[in-house]
Amino acid sequence: MSHHWYDAPIAAPDAAVRAAACDRQAQLTKPPGSLGRLEELGIALAAMQGTQQPRVDKVWITVFAGDHGVVAEGVSAFPQVVTAEMVRNFARGGAAISVLARTWDARLEVVNVGTVQPLEELPGVLDARVGPGTTNFVREPAMTGDQLHEALMAGHDAAERAAINGARLFVGGEMGIGNTTSAAAIACSLLGLPAAQLAGPGTGLDAAGVSHKALVIERALARHRSDQPLDALQRLGGFEIAALAGAYLRCGQLGLPTLVDGFITTAAALVAVRLRPDLAPWLFYAHCSAEPGHRRLLDALGAKPLLELGMRLGEGSGAAVAVPILRAAAALHAGMATFAEAGVSQT
Length: 347
What we know:
By secondary structure, the chain is of the alpha/beta class. It folds into 2 domains: 53 residues, Orthogonal Bundle (5,6-Dimethylbenzimidazole Phosphoribosyltransferase, Chain: A, domain 1), CATH 1.10.1610.10; 269 residues, Rossmann fold. The chain has 13 helices and 6 strands. A 6-stranded parallel beta sheet has the order 3-2-1-4-5-6, with helices on both faces. Helix 10 links the parallel strand 5 and strand 6.
């Protein structure tokens, strides 16, 4: 058996710290359970960080960009050039994720893993191009085995940069015209579902467009369906989806809490968790997006999203909006007084 970096063990949240965090929550100056899910989140963050003073101060956001050969089948409402144009928009600070990163004082980097054309040097954009977009997976596998490993490694490296720079939370985002088609195809392959249950409007297809997209995915599945996560990823994935899966896996190895964004990032998380089930405790799920298939993916992962705001932009934007919720949970766990400290009667 060949050994790869992602075969190394995933960290385990600290069970003793978790037990102490549960005890602490019971002693804080509030009726038990009255902070609802914020209590669970505070306990989880304490166990992940190995401290009763969890912090979500330093947030690292990596947006991976890549193009998709399947756009040749007419599956997107936007032309393929938009991928590269949006990377330039990220670099100029004009995208939604750029604004949110500035607002929360988060570090934002963009990693080009596969635009069709090479891009000029841009501030805040790393060139890790695996190839000029994937091939059309209706006809052949989306990428070669070597390309898959290179894309996974781009994600590994992003997680390493986050950890080295002291990040306490990693957020992955994506940009790639055609990537809801790729994400839906991967999900259908791993969950054994028909395309009609996971194909959605993406950037804005009408009903006929969604039907066509589902047929395109079914043609791809007839040729490439696999329940093996890395096979499905290689045959039906995108370079940015593979990079996200690699980033999540490395975050688990490094013990770095991770906030998953929307439909495409959740498809990447599904690949990563299917490959390494012990990764699951390191992943928070930010929101349930308006892309219809996202709920099915969340259900398959047993995930409880933090928000439901009808968002469907991608870029990591839904995850960025959820950052303050994790910050609140950490601050409440760390900062509230216990009944004993406050001299407040419990009975």
